[in-house]
Amino acid sequence: AEVLRADGLAKTYAEGKLRTPVFDGLHLDVAAGETVAIVGASGAGKSTLLHLLGGLDTPTAGEVYVAGQKMSALSDAARGALRNRALGFIYQFHHLLPEFTALENVMLPVLLNGTTVPDASSRAKSLLEAVGLGHRLEHKPGELSGGERQRAAVARALVNRPACVLGDEPTGNLDEKTAATVFELMLELNRAERTSLVMVTHDRRLARRLDRVLELHEGRLRELPADEV
Ligand code: ADP
Ligand code: ADP
């Protein structure tokens, strides 16, 4: 079954140039455990697509289904709960809360699910250990290096065992070597947790490591054959 589906998705921004659609009639199916790269030129609409898939913005037409649930049919509260439970997010910048420790940051999505503090803490600890931050539990984001912050963000994205992680250039702010390390770690953990991944990237070498590469161009998604990636 698909963990994520876009059906006839369209988006036109009210203040966009000449109100032309960014895309119109887009389809996407992501199977359980599948990893998908979205590539395309700047301005092609990759972030717009990711925002729609993550329920952060509303499409002009079409539907997004997350774990089989139609997003537009849910109340704001139910959509928020589904986003927290079924999706993980990793951005170019870590978006960790500065006043909280690494452990608290990773526990937060679990606590929002109504899990007890001891259970949330033990799940968060095991994931922070898995990303190599077992010795940084009590550090605040400002006391972590850039790579460590992104690894904490990986742990936070996976902590609720989401059906799918959505990444917008998750390693785009790191130097090449750190980016490669964080990316491999993210892939490895995604596989271990059987979580799907949809990742926007401009880095073709990273894209090539995923199951499918889709290019967003002139409002359409085209699957790139391996020799074109
Ligand atoms: P990409 O992520 O591929 O660089 P975006 O999704 O950011 O592309 O942008 C796609 C198009 O939509 C661009 O033409 C951009 O200027 C326009 N756009 C993005 N966000 C907004 C917005 N909030 N309001 C108006 N136009 C926007
Ligand atoms: P990098 O060389 O990767 O940029 P830093 O030089 O910023 O890393 O930090 C090196 C190590 O010291 C990191 O692992 C980080 O966790 C730790 N560290 C940095 N600043 C602090 C701090 N204010 N308090 C505690 N530990 C810190």
TrEMBL record:
Localisation per UniProt entry: Cell inner membrane
SUPFAM superfamilies: P-loop containing nucleoside triphosphate hydrolases
Pfam families listed in its UniProt record: ABC_tran
Location, primary (coarse class): membrane
Single GO biological process annotation from the record: lipoprotein localization to outer membrane
EC number: 7.6.2.-
Keyword terms of this UniProt record: ATP-binding, Cell inner membrane, Cell membrane, Lipoprotein, Membrane, Nucleotide-binding, Translocase, Transport
Any one GO molecular function term: transmembrane transporter activity
One GO CC annotation: plasma membrane
Domain ABC transporter span(s) in chain numbering: 4-229
InterPro entries recorded: AAA+_ATPase (IPR003593), ABC_transporter-like_ATP-bd (IPR003439), ABC_transporter-like_CS (IPR017871), ABC_transpr_LolD-like (IPR015854), LolD_lipo_ATP-bd (IPR011924), MacB-like_ATP-bd (IPR017911), P-loop_NTPase (IPR027417)
Membrane topology: Peripheral membrane protein
Function description: Part of the ABC transporter complex LolCDE involved in the translocation of mature outer membrane-directed lipoproteins, from the inner membrane to the periplasmic chaperone, LolA. Responsible for the formation of the LolA-lipoprotein complex in an ATP-dependent manner.
Family from the record: Belongs to the ABC transporter superfamily. Lipoprotein translocase (TC 3.A.1.125) family.
Quaternary structure annotation from Swiss-Prot or TrEMBL: The complex is composed of two ATP-binding proteins (LolD) and two transmembrane proteins (LolC and LolE).
Name of this protein: Lipoprotein-releasing system ATP-binding protein LolD
Source organism (scientific name): Luteimonas cucumeris
Gene name of the record: lolD
